[in-house]
Amino acid sequence: METIYLNGRFISKEEAKISPDDRGFLFADGIYEVVRWYTRSFFDMPGHVTRLKRSLEAVRIDWPEADDFPSIAGKLISLNGLENSPAMVYLQVTRGAARRSHNFPAVPVAPTVYSYAWGFVPDKGAALKGISIILKEDIRWSRCDIKSTALLPNILSFEDAFSAGYGECAFVRNGYITECSHSNIFFVKDKILYTHPESNFILSGISRKNVIKTARENEIPVREEPWPADQVGIADEAFISNTSAEITPVIEIDGIKTGSGQPGKITKLLMEKFHE
Question: Is 147 part of the annotated catalytic residue set?
Answer without folding.
Answer: yes
